[in-house]
Each structure stands twice: as C-alpha cells, then as structure tokens.
UniProtKB/TrEMBL annotation:
Organism of derivation: Billgrantia zhangzhouensis
The family this protein is said to belong to: Belongs to the cytochrome ubiquinol oxidase subunit 1 family.
Composition skew (Basic and acidic residues), residue ranges: 460-470
Protein name, entry field: Cytochrome ubiquinol oxidase subunit I
TM annotation in the entry: 12-41, 53-76, 96-118, 125-147, 183-206, 218-236, 318-343, 355-375, 404-428
Record-linked InterPro entries: Cyt-d_ubiquinol_oxidase_su_1
Predominant location category: membrane
Membrane topology label: Multi-pass membrane protein
Sequence segments annotated as region (Disordered): 446-470
Highest taxon above the source species: Bacteria
Length: 470
C-alpha cells in the first residue's frame, strides 16, 4: 500500500495543532481570571481572593507548560513537512512568528516567574502587574498566530509571483478580511473555556463542602461572565459565518450541507452527506432557515458545493458534522448559563446538586467545541493551504515520503500521550489538593523556596501527615 505524504502530513499537523489548541484556549482565559483575582485582593484584602488566585496560578503553570511544549513542534513542522509553503510564505509568516516571540514570549518570560513565585516575596502591586502582563502576553500571542492563520484563509496584501508571496501591504495582510472575526471568536472562546473550567471545579468543591465561601465567590463570578459571553459568542459566530459566506462560499456550503445553489435553503439539523454522489442521502431541516441566517431573506440564494469542481471541494461530511457539534455545544452552554441565572434568583444556586454536577460535566464541553470549530475551519479550507492560491499538494515538502510522515506521526502520538498523562496527573493533583490552608492551618514547609518551575504546583500536604503544624 502506497502511503500518501500529503494526507499523512495533514493528519500529523492536525493532531499536533489539536493537542496544542486546548491549552492556549484555556490559559488565555485563565490568565485574565487570575489577574482579576489579584486585583480584587489588592483592593479588598480579602484573603479568599488571594487563595483562589494561588490555586489557579498553580493550574495555569501546568497548562501553560504543556502548551509551550506542544506548540514548539508546529514551527518545526513547517520546515520538515511543508517546506514549499514555508519558502513561499517566508516573507509574511516568518516576520509574524518573530513578532510573536519578541512581543509575547519575551513579555511572558519576563513576568511569568514573578507571577508563579513572587507571592509574598514582592509587593502585591508588583504581583498584580506581573499577572496583568502575563495575561496581556497571551493575547498578543493569539493576535499574531490568528493573523497568520486568518491570512491563509483570506489572503490579502500580498502578490504571488514566481511561487513566492511578497507583501505589498502589511496592514492589509495582517488585518485581512477574516482576522477580526476569528480573533474575537477565539478570545471569547478562551474566556468561556476558562469560565466553565473554574465553574466546574468550584461546583465540585461545593459538592464536597470544601472552602465553601471562596468557591461560592468563584462560581458566582464565572456564571455572571458566562451569562453574558455565551450568547455574545453566538452573535460573533454569526458575523464570522457571514464573513465566511462572502470569502469562502464553498466552505460555508459544506457547513450547511447545501450541494446545489438554491433559494430558500433550509438549515439542516441532520443529514448524511454523500460526496461521491454529490448529494445528501437523508435530510431533516428547518425550511428557509439557512437563507434567513446568511442572507437575512427567506428566499435568499445560497451557493451549492457543486459550484466548485470535485477536486476543490472540502471533505463535506467532516465539515458538516464538526460544525454541528460546535453549534450544539454552544447552545448547551447558553442553556446552562441561563439556568444558573434562574437558580440564582430562586436562591438555589449553591444547593442545587444536579446543577452543580452538570457544571462539573460541562467543564470539558468548551474544549470539545473549540476542537470542533478548528476542524470545521481547517477542513473546510481543503484542498487549499492558502485559499485559492496554493494547495496542500503544492505546499508539502517534495522529498517527504509517506513512510517518513507516518513514522513521525506515530512518534508525536506517543510523546504527546506521555505529556498528556503527566500533565493530567499534575493538574488532578493540584485540583484535588485544592486551595492552600488558611493562615492558621499553614505548615512550616509551606514557605520553602521553590527549586524548579513546576514546583509551583507543590502541595505540601500530599500524603504526608507527619508534617508539623506551626
């Protein structure tokens, strides 16, 4: 059997970016939450805010470390698997990745140590400033990465001659047509992900009766934020869809499962796309809904997938179903947020055990939704690497063989499996330990100076009852 290096390279990059994406989408929102906690402690001097900040800073340390380790590999893959693309786009992609390092990584590196180990060692105002700078660094990093990725979907500000992209306008290239919508969509997804994780963990602590006062505060904060952001995300997603309708109509048609150009197109709740036959085998939909959403007219015209030749069509079934997973989870998150408002008004929020259990389960929903969204947007771009200009086959490394791509794919899966196990172990350990003891319960060894970065996750009570109390 002949192995296809293009397909395997796509699978390899998809695996790496999917594994990596779940960590930045969490740490971006969590860094801002930690900053808010530090600000509240700085203003009120309520120790509950300080203890919450300390707990979630330890969680942030582990997730941030895993995100950095898994993200470095993607830069290598541009050279090993996609050298033609790297050479062609170096005039644009190269500077953007450098800007990310200079502006975001340097900022995070300068203040991350202060955030992780400065508690009690630097003035509270300095600690708060460090938290804010780390949070700002995560957003700057997101800015540059999404600018590069959005350009690949809606290329602008460049001239493609002799197989090389030359920048004609940096402003148009960076702020390309899809960038504002993607950046807003990703930023809100990050806040929603962090909010549901903190809410889920806080709900678990309330169920077992640990640090009730502090975790009520944490849960309340998150649910107020989610009540605003989850429906707002749906609105931003609608604008993003309209942008896709304008610049990537074939992808949009695949998301809708619409094969033929027609007016008054329904929104399909369920369908079985058959790409070989260029039709759906089975459909259940809401009449006129797709046209109404995309054109704001009941009889608006929606282009069909068959407008593009078969070799330029994305994998419709993957795009169609991943989009519905994302939308379905988004609607579920809105419903859970609204239910929280109802229980809050009834005074049952902190005692509704079924709802608290639901929040525990919902802590994984944003990660699945984010992955489904990435699959939708990246699979929907196929077969284009740079939309309408360069295909995956044209961008792959010429000398790469299917065997080489398969070997490295297996290697990445193995190594990342180990990383995920180790990271999950540390995260579970930190969360099970919970918030640090109150001042009167502290142990002598709590004040030991950390020796290594991940010692920020240190839990002095771990399985050692022999430690002496002050």
């Amino acid at each position: 059997m002949e192995l296809d290096p293009v397909l395997l390279s796509r699978l390899q990059f998809a695996f790496v970016v999917s594994f990596h994406a779940i960590f930045p989408v969490f740490t971006i929102g969590l860094a801002s939450y930690i900053t808010v906690l530090h600000a509240l402690f700085y203003k009120t001097r309520n120790p509950a805010w300080d203890r919450l900040a300390y707990l979630w800073t330890k969680v942030f340390a582990v997730a941030f470390g895993m995100g950095v380790v898994s993200g470095i590999v993607m830069s290598f893959q541009f050279g090993t698997n996609w050298s033609n693309f790297s050479q062609a786009s170096a005039n644009f992609i190269g500077p953007l990745l450098s800007y990310e390092v200079v502006t975001a990584f340097f900022l995070e590196a300068a203040f991350l140590g202060v955030l992780l180990f400065g508690r009690g060692r630097v003035p509270q105002g300095v600690h708060l400033f460090a938290a804010a700078m780390v949070a700002l660094g995560t957003f700057i990093s997101t800015f540059w990465i999404l600018a590069a990725n959005s350009w690949m979907h809606t290329p602008a500000g460049v001239d493609f001659t002799n197989g090389v992209f030359r920048v004609t306008s940096w402003t148009e290239a960076i702020f390309n047509p899809s960038f504002p919508y993607r950046f807003a969509h990703m930023a809100m997804a990050s806040f929603i992900t962090g909010g549901f994780v903190v809410a889920g963990v806080s709900a678990w602590y309330l169920l077992i009766g640990r640090d009730v006062e502090a975790n009520r505060k944490a849960l309340s904060m998150c649910l107020w934020m989610l009540l605003v952001l989850t429906p707002t995300q749906a609105l931003v997603g609608d604008f993003h869809g309209l942008n896709t309708f304008e610049y990537q109509p074939v992808k949009l048609s695949a998301m809708e499962g619409n094969w033929e150009t027609r007016e008054g197109a329904p929104f399909l709740l369920f369908a079985w796309p058959d790409q070989a036959a260029q039709q759906n085998r089975f459909e259940i939909g809401i009449p006129y809904a797709a046209s109404l959403i995309l054109t704001h007219e009941l009889h608006g015209e929606i282009p069909g997938i068959i407008e593009a030749p078969p070799e330029e069509q994305p994998p419709v079934a993957i795009v169609f179903w991943s989009f519905r997973v994302m939308v379905g989870l988004g609607l579920l998150m809105i419903a859970v947020s609204l239910l929280g408002l109802y229980l809050r008004r009834g005074g049952k929020l902190y005692h509704a055990r079924r709802y608290l259990q639901t929040l525990r389960l919902m802590s994984v929903a944003p990660f699945i939704a984010v992955l489904a969204g990435w699959i939708t947007t990246e699979s929907g771009r196929a077969p284009w690497l740079v939309y309408g200009i360069m295909t995956h086959a044209e961008g792959v490394t010429p000398s790469l063989t299917g065997g080489m791509a398969l070997f490295t794919l297996i290697g990445y899966i193995t190594v990342y499996g180990i990383i995920f196990y180790a990271g999950t172990y540390y995260l579970t350990r930190v969360i099970r330990y919970g918030m640090e003891p109150k001042e009167e319960e502290k142990l002598i060894d709590d004040f030991e100076t950390p020796k290594r970065p991940w010692s920020a996750t240190h839990t002095p009570f771990d399985d050692n009852p022999a430690k002496r109390e002050v």
